From TrEMBL:
PROSITE patterns named among the record's database cross-references: ADH_SHORT (PS00061)
Span of domain Ketoreductase: 41-225
MF term (GO), any: oxidoreductase activity
Protein name, entry field: Ketoacyl reductase
GO cellular component: membrane
A Pfam match: adh_short
Length: 344
C-alpha cells in the first residue's frame, strides 16, 4: 500500500510539473502577441525631469502617449514639461517626492482627474552616492532605500487598483546592473537597486494573473549627463574622476537615447527583464557563471579606487578637476546639456 501511495504521489507530482510546463509554454506564446502601442496611453515617469527619465519621456511623446512627469525639483520639472509641450506632447508635470506615500497618492489622484488611469508606470527616480564603505553612514543607506525601493513600491501600490480593475497595465522598474552585481564604492546604491530588482521580480510573478506585466530593467553605464548631480564622498574629486570617465567613454557606456529605446521596446513586449548594454550583459553573465572570479576581479578593482573615508558629501558639479573638464568627458557634458542635468 505504501509503495502504491508513493507511485500515486509521483504521478501527481509529474502531472503537476507537466501542467506547469504547458502553462508556461502557453504563457510565452501569449506574451508574443502582447506587443502594444503607446499611442493614447497615459504614461507616468518618475524622475522624469532630467536624464534617462526625460529621454524616455521624449520617446513616449513621439509615439503619441500622454506623459506625466514627476520630480522633486520644480524648476527642472517646468523646463522638461515646456520642452515636451513644444514638441507637441500632451504633458502633465507634478512636483512629487516619491518617498512620501501621501504625495504619491495625491499625484496619482491628479493624474486620474486629467487623464484617467495610468496605463504605464515607469519607476525611474533615483540618486547615486559614490565613495568607500568607510565614508558612508546609515543615512546614506536610508536615503538610497527610500528612493529606490519605497518610492517604486508607493507608486506601484497607487496605480495597481485601476490596473487590476481593467485587467491591464505595464510597470517598468529601472534598477541597474548594480542591482545584479554589486559594484565597489556604490554600496548604498547597489544594495537598494538589488532590493528594487527583487521587488520587481516578485511583482512580475504575482501580477501576471491580473494582466499586468512588470519589467525589471538593469542598464549598464549610460551617457545621461547625470554625474554632476551625483553625490561623492571620501576623496570626492578622485571618486568623481573615475566615475565620470567610465560614464563618458563610448567603450564603457551607451547613449541615453539608445538605452531608452531598448527600455521602451522591452515595455512594449512585456519582457520580464531587460539587460541594457553590453557591459550589463557581460557582468550579469560573469556573475552567474563565475561568481568567485567576478568577486575577485571586483575586489581587485576596489583596491585601485581611492580609500579616503571622509564623510563630507559633495555634488559632482563641485568635484570637477582639469581632467574631468577636458575633452575626455565631452560626451557626458553634451548629454548633461541635452538632458536638463545642468545645475542653475
Amino acid at each position: 500500500m505504501a509503495r502504491r501511495n508513493k507511485k500515486d504521489a509521483s504521478r501527481i507530482t509529474l502531472g503537476a510539473l507537466a501542467a506547469a510546463g504547458m502553462s508556461a509554454v502557453m504563457g510565452l506564446r501569449a506574451l508574443r502577441k502582447q506587443h502594444v502601442s503607446f499611442s493614447g496611453r497615459t504614461v507616468l515617469v518618475t524622475g522624469g525631469s532630467r536624464g534617462l527619465g526625460l529621454v524616455m519621456a521624449r520617446q513616449f511623446v513621439a509615439e503619441g502617449a500622454r506623459v506625466v512627469l514627476c520630480a522633486r525639483e520644480e524648476v527642472e520639472l517646468a523646463r522638461a514639461r515646456d520642452e515636451l509641450q513644444r514638441a507637441g506632447g500632451e504633458v502633465m508635470a507634478i512636483p512629487c517626492d516619491v518617498t512620501d506615500r501621501v504625495q504619491v497618492e495625491a499625484m496619482v489622484s491628479r493624474v486620474h482627474e486629467r487623464f484617467g488611469a495610468v496605463d504605464v508606470l515607469v519607476n525611474n527616480a533615483g540618486l547615486i552616492q559614490v565613495g568607500p564603505l568607510e565614508s558612508m553612514n546609515e543615512e546614506d543607506f536610508d536615503e538610497a532605500m527610500n528612493v529606490h525601493f519605497w518610492g517604486p513600491l508607493y507608486t506601484t501600490l497607487a496605480v495597481l487598483p485601476e490596473m487590476k480593475r481593467r485587467g491591464w497595465g505595464r510597470i517598468v522598474n529601472v534598477s541597474s546592473i548594480g542591482g545584479r552585481v554589486s559594484v565597489p564604492h556604490l554600496l548604498p546604491y547597489s544594495a537598494s537597486k538589488f532590493a528594487l530588482a527583487g521587488l520587481s521580480d516578485g511583482l512580475r510573478v504575482e501580477l501576471a494573473q491580473d494582466g499586468i506585466l512588470v519589467t525589471t530593467v538593469c542598464p549598464g553605464l549610460m551617457r545621461t549627463g547625470s554625474p554632476p548631480n551625483a553625490f561623492f564622498k571620501g576623496d570626492h574629486e578622485a571618486e568623481y574622476a573615475w566615475f565620470v570617465l567610465g560614464d563618458s567613454l563610448p567603450g564603457t557606456s551607451m547613449s541615453a537615447e539608445r538605452a531608452a529605446r531598448k527600455i521602451l521596446e522591452a515595455c512594449r513586449r512585456g519582457d520580464a527583464e531587460a539587460l541594457v548594454g553590453l557591459s550589463a550583459k557581460v557582468a550579469a553573465l560573469a556573475r552567474t557563471l563565475a561568481p568567485n572570479m567576478t568577486a575577485a576581479m571586483l575586489a581587485q578593482f576596489n583596491r585601485m579606487l581611492p580609500q579616503d573615508g571622509s564623510t563630507e558629501r559633495f555634488r559632482g558639479s563641485d568635484s570637477e578637476t582639469p581632467l574631468t573638464r577636458s575633452w575626455v568627458t565631452q560626451l557626458t557634458r553634451w548629454a548633461a546639456q541635452r538632458n536638463n542635468e545642468l545645475l542653475h
